[in-house]
Amino acid sequence: MSTIDTTCVNAIRVLSADAIEKANSGHPGLPLGAAPAAYELWAHHMKHNATDPKWANRDRFILSGGHGSMLLYSLLHLYGYGLTMDDIKQFRQYGSLTPGHPEYGHTTGVEATTGPLGAGMSMAVGMAMAEAHLAALFNKPGYPIVDHYTFALGGDGCMMEGISSEAFSLAGTLGLSKLVILYDSNKISIEGSTDLAFTENVQKRMEAFGFQTITVEDGNDLSAIGSAIEEAKADTQRPSFITIKTQIGYGCPAKQGKASAHGSPLGAENIIAMKENLGWPKPTESFYIPEEVYAHYGELSKQAGAAEAAWQELLAAYTAAYPELGEQWLAFHRDVDADALLHNEEFWSYADKPQATRNLSGIMINRLKNLMPQLMGGSADLAPSNKTQMDGEASFCKDDYSGRNIHFGVRELAMTGVTNGLALHGGIRPYAGTFFVFSDYMKPMIRLAALMKLPVTYVLTHDSIGVGEDGPTHEPIEQLAMLRAVPNLNVFRPADAKETAAGWYLAVTSKTTPTALVLTRQNLPQLSGTGRNALKGAYIVSESGQDVPDAILIASGSEVSLSIEAKVLLEKEGIHVRVVSMPCMELFEKQSDDYKEHVLPRSVRARVAVEAASGFGWGAYVGIDGATVTMPGFGASGSAGMLFKNFGFTAEHVVETVKKVTAEV
Length: 665
What we know:
Helix content: 40-55%
CATH class of the largest domain: Alpha Beta
Number of strands: 18
Shape: elongated
Number of helices: 26
């Protein structure tokens, strides 16, 4: 290791320790131990450009161990990505560009929001899949316009979390050779030695998944780390897993190798001792970085930028040689024409017969695949049930990365993380499907998609007790309330074909919000009053026939037609009811106060919500005087018809509930 390399590695350590100390909060252990690996990767093996952080053919770096965020912030500062020293000094402070964990879209150079351990690993797999897919579609001999690596750095916690195993199993099956995992193996967790709960042979596990495994015995040996990275790149058949044996809190005499280095500031005296131990100049001065360090990083940054300049020339030559592919490349990287899709009559057309909304969703997917070449997705081994298959399209697999149908296997959690990675990479518009009840497995990564403002689509079928004979384990009850509680997530439960088309329109035209499409297994009738007004979240599908209705029925999905049946019966008894379809509460809340008053006038206090799920959340719309016809507990095993009747989802029971509410009001 040269003197300047040593100094530049230690600059990462010192900067990280000082920022954490000033914040009196943070995790110094990972930055101190993993600094050599990060420096070697960014300095000599990774394509990146601080002056154009989003260029398409850059290598991706994901810090899966997001608690070590100061490692990444130090790199971004030293390479000139726009983080100033003042930003570093504001680490973990409100409104700063250096929050406690890296946040995508908030800090330039951060490729993914990380923090939940293992999540970054699944997103890295998605990014590697996107690279492989686009390379298969666009590369031509002499024109490797898609040719980059995905690197992810994580520690023991990332290896313990189940999402990593799910994602790595898929990566190995797919042979994603452009994926390189750097394992910061320091054998320390918050509670002490990892031997307390984690004694497996990680390398053997990774071999079983289909990875090339490489071990670096000394985490401070830049040459060995560099050789390992090049060995990883040389394997064109398998993803690679590099175990780098490090010491947590390296350089701090009182903390090195101890659990106390993980999640607490080192302390002012220990930082001075660390700087003296590392031979750092001006050890008593906080945030001191020698000019030669900035100069060296500046030179490295210029060299990194030259890679993009060469790629831009290659892309220009490629576009000239293959103009049609050049235009398609642009199409893959731009949004769908929302106005054209809104007025595309073929997209909105439907057969006037009872159909399950899961089937209708499948029809929409196959219409969209011809309009959106970047659409790509699949299911957690449930495509025949979820109707997520694109007809006439190949499967994405090791032998054919050009395929658009993804077989995620029974891995809902990793599947959702992978779709985040596909979206983060760019050039792909992903969707993922499973049974609605298993959104429980997806929720943590759905939350990250919402936090990162990624417009991923979730196809969630078998949406109620209509699942029937599969019984309560497969009948979603509380999942609608759960997903509706996630900020920046549109939860859309359509009632028929026109509303299903509206749901898909919403999903593929969204720019900053993911969409959960909640779909039936059972057939539903096509309704005369539905339409594109569903894009307002709630609207009147059947009017009462008088200026002010006696009561309002509010429903979603399969219960809209049930509410219309009840309305007919109520009219025979002289009770005039308005039926409102509310496929998406989130969209309705974004409408003007005048529109909301038009649909749900305050003067009408007799309101009943009808939904075959938990009633949690409906109080906002029915008020203190209203009622709900919802699920009071879990479902049961039996035919769908029997269950709907048994749990009160009949026109007669809805009528009784409305009459009771109107009488009380």
